[in-house]
Structures are given as C-alpha cells and as structure tokens.
Write a structure and sequence with these properties.
The protein has two domains: 4-106 and 249-320, FAD/NAD(P)-binding domain (3-Layer(bba) Sandwich); 109-246, FAD/NAD(P)-binding domain. The two termini are 39 Å apart. It is built from eleven helices and 23 strands. It is an alpha/beta fold and 383 residues long. The chain is 30% helix and 28% strand. Bound molecules: flavin-adenine dinucleotide. Flavin-adenine dinucleotide binds at residues 9-14, 34-37, 43-44, 46-47, 77-78, 103-105, 124, 154-155, 158, 250, 252, 282-284, 291-294, 296, 326-327.
C-alpha cells in the first residue's frame, strides 16, 4: 500500500509541499490536499486589489488548474483533526493518514476588536480588500489610520506598505493635502529584524508626512466619536480606519489540542509536532519566524525533504533555518527587499536591498515562478 499523506490547507505551505512530493514520487504516493476554498490568492495581491491595481478575478488562481501525479485535490472544510490517530473529518468524509501535514494558516477575527466591523475596514482578507476598492475612492479628507490590533500578524511590512501606497493613491487623486496618514504598530521599528529596512521605511514616511505610532496596538474604535483607542489609552481621530485584525489559529486547530498558547508548537528543525507523524508548517505554527508565505514555503520544503529521506532511506535534510526574502512596496513604483534569517543565528537578522524598479520585476517573477511550479505554465501567464 502507498504511504498515505494528508495535507490540510492549499496555501503557500500546502502547495509547495504537494508539488515537491508529487515531483519526487508521482503516482507512487497517495496524497490528498484539502482546502475549503476554490482558489489560491497571494497575500500581496490583496494590496493590489484594494488599490485597484488588479481586479479580484485576476488575483484568484483556481485550484482546478492544479493537476499533479499522485495528488487528489479536495475542496472541503476540515471539521476535526485527531492528531493522535492522524484522523481528519471533512465535509466530504474521513481521512486516515500515515503522515499528516497541517498548513491551515491563520484566521482573522475582526469582531475581536470592538468597533472594527461596524466602523472600520480590514484589508487582510480577500473580501475586505475587495470591499475597500469601493471605499477608498470616497475618502476625500480627514485622518486615515492603518492600525494593527494584535501583536502577532501576517507580513509585518504590510501595514507600512499600505500607508505608502495610500499616499500615492491620494496624491494621484489630488486628495493628499486634505488628508493625514498614520500607522499604528506594536513594534518600535517597522521591521524589527532589520534596522536598515526600518530606517528606509521611516525615511520614506518622513518624506511623505506619514506618522509612525510605535509600540502600541489599536484596542477598539469608538464609532460614535470616530476615534481609535490605543493600548496605552491614547485616542486618535479617524475618518478612514484600515485595520489588521486579530489573528488566531482556525477553530478546528483550537479544538484539536494541537495548539499551545495560541499556535502549534513544532520542532524548529523538522517542523514535527509533538504527535508522531504530524507536521505543521507556516502561519499556523509558533516556529519563531514572521508569518509570511516565504517562511511557510521554506518550512514545507524541509518537511518534504524529510519525508523523501524517510521514504527512500536517505540522510535527514538540513534543519529549517527560517530564511526568506520579503518584498516591500515603497510606493513611487518601487519595491525594496529584505532578506531575513530568523533561526540560524543567535538572533534574527535582515539585510536590506534598496527600492528599485528592478525589484518590481523580481517580485513579479517571484509570484509567476510559484504559479508555474504549483499550477503549470498556463497559470504563470495570468499573473
Ligand atoms: C496584505 C498582505 C500582504 C502579504 N504580503 C506578503 C508578501 O509580500 N510575501 C509573503 O511571503 N507573504 C505575504 N503575506 C503573508 C502570506 O499571505 C501568508 O503568510 C501565507 O499565505 C501563509 O501561508 P500558509 O500556507 O501558512 O497559510 P495560507 O496561505 O493562509 O493557507 C491556508 C489555507 O488553509 C485553508 N483553510 C483554513 N481553514 C480551513 C479548514 N477548516 N478547512 C479547509 N481549509 C482550510 C485556507 O482556505 C487557506 O487556503 C501577506 C499577507 C497579507 C494579508
């Protein structure tokens, strides 16, 4: 009988893992990839959708395009996971795994911040980004706040990118003089592992008159008075609030007993959980990297290499190093890059590559190369 591999979640981590295992084993593997959605969307595409740079349809890469030897792709919701027996219940039936990989990402909980649903907007979900396409054109004057509501959130550069892109958007529409932009962040500097990248972002903010409010969170919105209440008690008036909602593990993970203190702990070198044969990669873990697609992908590569070694009897792979490059939109049609290493040294480090048009092209290639690898050449041409 073939080894039964069940992968939960077809995001950055699940797609990368599935692709490598299919390339390595083809039909000799029994792999089921389960996702409740019908399409993959890059995190960064949410910014493109929100600012009208692409349409929502252009951001979606349908899973029906994913055809790989040995892989069954199932669109269904995972309802329960028993990590001890490696049994998964879905709306489409029960699956027993020899190897179970959990890559279900982080869920958003806008309702956890009082006032956010009623009086603000979030741009971290596809639906939120789509809704903002209609909201931004109506923002003509007053204060805009890009505000983070929990210490753990995906893609730490995204709030800064949003502020810089909002500056360009308002400038192009002749509304920048009538508006203010602030960013409320839980960190002292925008990208803590990279002081150099942070200085460049803060310099870009200073040049454009964007205010950086450090070391604080937005706790609630008082929608009657239109003020954001910060974790240190300060209040900031807003006309437009663009929020990064509270992040948490999907409810099915909470109920499974896999999470400890909010996220799934894993062996930092192998990504195995404390349950034998159960691995977790990406945003759903507390592995110690930032929550970003490149790190989910890197973790998936280590799990794949470990499984290939295990099934073929080779030496174990290099341990996970938590390395990855994040592209940072600086506005003015330029993109910068930070190459971060979270786990291989005594503390995280990040090397900065200054914004340029060349990096705009490199970021596009980053996306296209993933689509080509995961879905085939046809999908890459759609980006
Ligand atoms: C605005 C923004 C900008 C970003 N920019 C970047 C960037 O430039 N670079 C970068 O690397 N990262 C970026 N990110 C972060 C990136 O999108 C995520 O970190 C990445 O997608 C995480 O990958 P993952 O595989 O861990 O989870 P995900 O990609 O989130 O995949 C999880 C999958 O699990 C599925 N799922 C969840 N629960 C269930 C269930 N119960 N049953 C079935 N399926 C389920 C979901 O449908 C989803 O497809 C950005 C994010 C945002 C919001």
């Amino acid at each position: 009988m073939h080894t039964r591999v069940v992968v939960l979640g077809a995001g950055f981590g699940g797609l990368e893992l599935t692709t490598i295992l299919s390339d390595a084993f083809g039909d000799a593997l029994d792999l089921v990839l389960i996702d409740k959605g019908d399409a993959f969307v890059f995190g960064f595409s949410k910014l493109d959708v929100m600012f009208g740079r692409i349409t929502p349809a252009e951001a979606r890469h349908p899973y029906r395009d994913l055809v790989k030897p040995g892989v069954r792709l199932l669109q269904s919701t995972v309802r329960s996971i028993d990590p001890a027996s490696r049994r998964v219940e879905t709306d489409a039936g029960t699956f027993d795994a020899d190897i179970l990989v959990v890559a279900l990402g982080a869920d958003m909980d806008p309702a956890a911040t009082p006032g956010l649903v009623e009086g603000g907007h979030e741009f971290y979900s596809v639906a939120g980004a789509e809704a903002l396409r209609d909201v931004l054109p109506r923002f003509e004057r007053g204060a805009a706040i890009v505000g983070v509501t929990s210490k753990t959130f995906k893609c730490p550069p995204a709030p800064s990118e949003t502020a810089l892109l909002l500056h360009d958007y308002l400038t192009a529409r002749g509304r920048r003089q009538a508006t203010d932009i602030s960013v409320v962040m839980p960190f002292g500097i925008p990208i803590p592992p990279s002081p150099e990248t942070s200085s460049a972002i803060l310099a870009a903010f200073a040049e454009r008159g964007i205010r950086y409010v450090k070391d604080t969170l937005v706790r609630s919105l008082d929608t009657a008075r239109k003020v954001a209440v910060l974790s240190d008690g300060r209040e900031m008036p807003y006309e437009l609030f663009l929020g990064v909602p509270v992040h948490r593990v999907p409810a099915v993970i909470e109920a499974s007993g896999l999470a400890v203190d909010g996220w799934i702990p894993v062996n930092k070198k192998t990504l195995e959980t404390r349950f034998p044969g159960v691995y977790a990669v990406g945003d759903v873990t507390s592995v110690g990297t930032a929550k970003a697609g490149v790190f989910s992908e890197g973790a998936a590569r280590v799990v794949a290499a470990g499984l290939i070694a295990q099934l073929r009897g080779g030496p174990p792979p290099e341990p996970y190093a938590g390395r990855g490059s994040c592209y940072v939109e600086f506005g003015h049609h330029q993109v910068g890059r930070v190459d971060v290493d979270f786990l291989s040294g005594p503390k995280p480090t990040g090397i900065f590559e200054a914004p340029s048009e060349a990096l705009v092209a490199e970021k596009a290639l980053f996306g296209a190369s993933r689509l080509q690898r995961w879905f085939g050449p046809h999908a890459a041409r759609q980006l």
